[in-house]
Amino acid sequence: MEPMHWRNGSTDLFQDFENLQDEINRLFEVTRVPESRGIFERTFSPAVDVVENPDAFEVLCDVPGMEIADMEISIAGSVLTIKGEKKTSVDKDEARTYREEMRAGRFQRTLQLPLAVDSSRVDAVLKDGVLMITLPKQEELKPRQIAVKAR
Fold this sequence. Notes:
Strand 1 and strand 2 (56-62) form a beta hairpin. This protein has 151 residues and is mainly β. The protein has one helix spanning 13-27, and strands at 48-52, 56-62, 71-76, 79-86, 105-112, 123-127, 130-136. The protein has a domain at 48-139: Immunoglobulin-like.
């Protein structure tokens, strides 16, 4: 019985499977970032850390390359919302992109804090690509030391 030859003349079945796997991988390679189409389909969402201190919550949001004018911060009770748009640095009309890993586009992060905050004293600072939002706790919600008296 003669060995069976495949289309390319090869008799190595494992090599043929490797070639097929390579072709499938090339088929699914991502060459561009898809456009955002809806509220749940975001191409960019910055990383966020939330830290609780005795007097306040601190929210650190990683937004490299963004300007403060491109962001909007709002608070309602204990819900913080950060909206913004990170713009691409490349003019798509004049340049051809070979690799695009830096994400751009609109984003919205909504965070539920464990306690209500004093919205009149919220402070936001953008420094070195990190947005730091300080959310002071309401006075009546801060832990208070109570002295015990002996009788």
